[in-house]
Amino acid sequence: MYDRSYFYSCENLFYELLNPIFMSIRDNIYGLFQDRISDLDSGNFVNREEYIYLLRQTIREYQESQIKLKLIEIDAQWDLHHWQGILSRKETENLLGKKDTLLILFSPPELSPDVPPSIQNNLPVEFKSIKDKLKLFYSEKDYNYGVKFYTDITDYNCRFSLGFWNDKSYEPTIISSPLWNWEKTFNKFFKIGLDEKQSFRAIRELIIIYNQLLASYFIDTFYVSIDPYYPLKFPIFTTHLAKELIRNKECVECYFLQLKQMQEEELIILEEIAQKKEQNLKGNVNQWKVLNTIKVRGDYPIYSIAIHPNDDIIASACGYDGIQEFDIYSGELLNITMSNHHSVIAVAYDCSGESLICGE
């Protein structure tokens, strides 16, 4: 095993190549967050958690429609494209049907005929290892969308690109890095003592590492735009991956801070919207009208109430008489849930409306 400190000579390269594409990812994804905020701002959510739930529902609905269209397309063109040689029809349907899966595709590098044999023969094989490192930090259940990474390499230049689809456009958004003259980097490695074989290997390692860093940054940025409470994994992933690549940690820590700042900005925006809605609600209190009077069963008072997210059911915490659910419009008693001889004084629905939460 040879000394890998030669990577330290590439610190400037890290910034020159990845900084522009990181910034483009952040700007594009944050723009999607702002668009979705505008779409949902007129809705009925009153807190950040409800917004996050509504946003995830919006994305899932978009995914479901896209999956249906893709399955129709596959069914019509299956034999034409001979896809059965790659995946069975059932395997493909199962893959697409995972609405909570981010399908990350690393296309085999596009290599011109003049690329040296060491890269031409080995890089396509090494590309298959890119996801192995990501899987150590990102479980499949974290993923939610489709993004494709691809790399174009000539006999002296290289460019990193990614394309991703979103619910705001039918066309993918394409983001690319500046051109990297890898031949100059190769010559630099050669001058500091690496032989030809080691220098080519170092170039291939850089290409793999940069693709992994791009994928990690994209995943975190995308998920922060959906859920500001998402636990960032890019910092620990980058620290693990780049410890032999970067000596000056400040040049990567700035990206950690940018992601945290993005989280904080989103939380502030959501809190402002929630406060505005609360003020509007209080301002309209004099316009409220009594539509129905609901009588609970039992001898205990109502300690608290909760309204179902669909606005059609009301639940009341009635002490030792349990939780009682009523149809808001008809007043009909729908269900009584007892709490094992304990007094229930607090009740709430989760954001989906599928579960009741009580406090004693």
Automatic annotation (TrEMBL):
What is the name of this protein?
WD40 repeat-containing protein
Q: Where is the signal peptide?
A: none
Q: Say which domain of life the source belongs to.
A: Bacteria
Species lineage: Bacteria, Bacillati, Cyanobacteriota, Cyanophyceae, Oscillatoriophycideae
